[in-house]
Amino acid sequence: MSNKINVILVDDHEMVRLGLKSFLNLQGDVELVGEAENGREGVDLALELRPDVVVMDLVMPELDGVQATLELLKEWPEAKILVLTSYLDNEKIYPVIEAGAKGYMLKTSSAAEILNSIRKVYRGEEAIETEVDNKIKYHDSHPNLHDDLTARERDILALLAKGYDNQTIANELFISLKTVKTHVSNILGKLNVDDRTQAVVYAFRHHLVSQDDE
Question: Which part of the chain is the Response regulatory domain (predicted)?
Answer without folding.
Answer: 6-122
